[in-house]
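Question: Send over one sample?
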Amino acid sequence: MNIIISNSSGKPIYQQIVAQIKQLIMTDVLKEGDALPSMRTLAKELRISVITTKRAYEELEKEGFIETITGKGSFVAGKDKELIREERYRQIEALLEKACETARMNGMTLEELLDIMTLLYKEE
């Protein structure tokens, strides 16, 4: 599993880990039942605290992306199609929110923004 941590990112390290593991699960790089590295192993590989990896795994488990079995480890959970769809919608909403904010800051009208989005969406 290739996770890249950016110290210059505004996101906390545990959130970077969560986002990257979610992406690996949603794109089927990690499949249902696949084992994740132990918290200690991941912490060692990333040169971060075990507490940080523990927080990331807890967040992933809380959101239903992984299951942890005491004594065995953490595994990719069975995919709930609705959960995956909701996560994708959240990602799209976050990107669109940034686009809207930038458009407003630059005096662009909603119609102009919609025209650009329509053109981009219809591109092949």
About this structure: The chain has a mean pLDDT of 91.
